[in-house]
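subagent[fold] <- orchestrator: predict structure for attached chain, return tokens only, no commentary.
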Amino acid sequence: MLLGLLGGCSFYRSMPLNASSVEEALRPPPIEAVKIAAERLDHPLIKPIRIDGEGGFTPDEIAVMVVIVSPQLRTLRDERGLAQAQVVQAGILPNPQWSQSADVPHGNADPTLVTGRARGLGWDLGALLTHHDDVAAAKATARSVDLQIAWQEWQVAQEARLRAFRIAAMQEQLPLEREIEQGLADNVAVMRQSLDHGLKTAVDLTGATDLFTQARDARLALEQNLVADRLALNLSLGLAADAPLQIKLPETFPALATDSEAGARLLSGLEKRRLDLVALTLGYQSQESTLRSAVLAQFPKINLSVNRANDTSAIKTRGWAIGVDLPVFDRHQGVIAAARATRQQLFDDYVARVAEARAQVQQMLEDLVVVRTQLDGASASLADLQLLATGYEQSYASGNADVIAYRDARAALALRRIEQSRLRQALLELGVGLEIATGRALLTDTITR
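subagent[fold] -> orchestrator:
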């Protein structure tokens, strides 16, 4: 019997934390294994995707790869094990209690006396009252944890997409920033020569130097941001900090509607698509069961036992016993009050998040209108600036234009192209933000269910 009981016990297994085990965990999986996992991905929001990797990776491919290999997500997924352990524990009823005692006669010579023995078997019936609600609460919590993890994975995937978009935009802007910086550096050199010949003043040189310094600082800041985003993306992918990662963007993206009907469509069914809100709903159900269990736990604890005994004169008895708690002082007042307060807190949190999500969608739709208007204006003026720069280039080549005026025209054209690139980047970021806020596929339908 003892061996049978021990057969269901767990045993300790060592899990060393040392340099070799850490390096093994940090080693990224082979790209072929990642591709297979991407095609078999089972996720409530992220679709499986085929990754070819030819000519680089798209932001959607990078997003799925991050979900598969991110070291940060491993820690998050460990919460599933904790939640499932709580489900198992909630379903376990309390063990029965076995007791046995013996009274051995001592200090007398009466041969009729025997050893008195008593055996008893008892069980706490009170656990049956709350068992159903305890299990329901644990299962709802486990489902809530699953959805919260899926929502966090979705957030991490979208953050990786944003970084990929930003990196691609900054790679487009960096040559333009360098062109502006080089042109202003040449202007400073010309100003110094003109100052030496008395054609320019120190004020002119100071102004040109300030413009060059601003352009240099802008280029350095852009390079710093590019390095930071590359490092963050490589970290999410489990790659080395200096590992190269080529990004390829789709040629076009759909234009997002911003009218009132589009807003209504985006908000329709929002509470069912956003997994964080669904997880909160399950958390609320779990708390309902927890509160009901706390109320039922007011019922006095009952312990039922049966026993068999004999005294030292060999008289045998069989009996039973019932133990009941008298709820004079402790009636679970504090536990019930805490459960009710937690339920109210979850309710208010859900309402606040729904309101926040609706406000976010409306704000981003309005921002889309503004950014799109700015982008149209910047794109429309590019043709005029291009004509102006071309005209100055021809005039400078024929000796009819000042070199500084020519470089200023080139710098103005480069600045407008940088502005156009940043506005396109802002549109993409707003599109991803709307996807996050609504749980809908808007920019592409490659990864979003």
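orchestrator: received. Logging for downstream: The first helix runs from residue 2 to 7. The domain at 29-104+114-438 is CATH 1.20.1600.10 (Outer membrane efflux proteins (OEP)).
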